Amino acid sequence: MSKSTRKRPSGRARSTARGAIETITRPQQSWPVKLLLTVWRWRWELYVLASIAYIVIAHGNAISGYFQSNPLWLNALLTIVLCGWIITDNLVRRFVLNRIWCVTTRHRLRACLVEMRVLNYSGNLPFILGCFATKTGQVVWLWMRPGQSVEDLDNKAESLASACWASKATIARSKRNAAIVRIDIDRRDPLAKKTIDSPLLDDTSGVPEAAVADDAVMAFLTPDSASNESTTHDERPAKTGSANTSGETRPRTSKTKTTAAVNDSQTVILGANGEDVSDYV
């Protein structure tokens, strides 16, 4: 048999680079379940659309007839009053703005969880229990599905804050149930533009600034009180021993540290032997 004339390539064989393939499975859900989840996710948008449709269909003719029967200046005045009521701060305006931010936060948070692949093996996302308004932003409660925990959100607070257009996000787990996770979305600081006055300054409102700035401790260290050196004598009965058998008691003298003031109002601290120890204190 003749040998093959095909030549083998010289040198090393080229290795084929293989990239990682990520496979994400989706749970097999029935159409009723998908419909219920979609309605739950878009419930506020559907409620607003249903309300607008009801007002247009049921009361559209009455509203248009009312504006046609009024003069132009009255319609303009009503429009200005309505716009001013919407712009000014009131209970209805705060409720509407809080609801808009809560709906936006919930949608943005869900989109961020999808992009970060916070999924279990079946492909389920954490269930969003609710989103509520707070004084600093919103708070979102998550129900972690089987196979998920708060560890899946470790070091992802900045990503959540960026996705929700917020300044900061804080992730905390419930102490009673590990499946419940709280995410605080902070958008504003209510104390940033406010000045907090201390009630401790009320007593010094009528005192001059020079007197307030004076050290309260140095006020007690006057030359008269600092120049008086005191020596205390404690008389205690001496211990009876072999050397002292007569039963006599000797007074026991102990020197204490005293302070003295010099002419230039500098305090001098004296030790037990009368040495100046001001440099060591």
Descriptive account of the structure:
Among the domains are: 31-186, no CATH class; 220-230 and 255-281, no CATH class. The protein contains eight helices and eight strands, in the order H-H-H-H-E-E-H-E-E-H-H-H-E-E-E-E. The protein has helices at residues 31-41, 43-69, 72-87, 91-115, 157-163, 209-213, 216-220, 223-227; strands spanning 127-133, 137-143, 168-173, 180-186, 233-234, 252-253, 258-261, 267-270. A four-stranded antiparallel beta sheet has the order 1-2-4-3, covered by helices on one side. The protein starts with 30 loop residues before the first helix and ends in an 11-residue tail after the last strand. The model is unreliable at 9-16, 229-235, 240-246 and 254-264 (pLDDT under 50).
List keywords for this structure.
single chain, 281 residues, alpha+beta, 8 helices
Physical arrangement of strands within the biggest beta sheet? 1-2-4-3
Number of helices: 8
What would you call the shape?
flat
Structural class: alpha+beta
Encode the helix/strand succession as letters.
Answer: HHHHEEHEEHHHEEEE
**Portion of residues within helices:** 25-40%
The share of residues in extended strands comes to: 5-15%
Radius of gyration: 41 Å
Largest sheet: 4 strands, antiparallel
Q: Which consecutive residue ranges, at least 5 long each, have pLDDT under 50?
A: 9-16, 229-235, 240-246, 254-264
Termini separation (Å)? 107 Å
What is the number of E strands?
A: 8
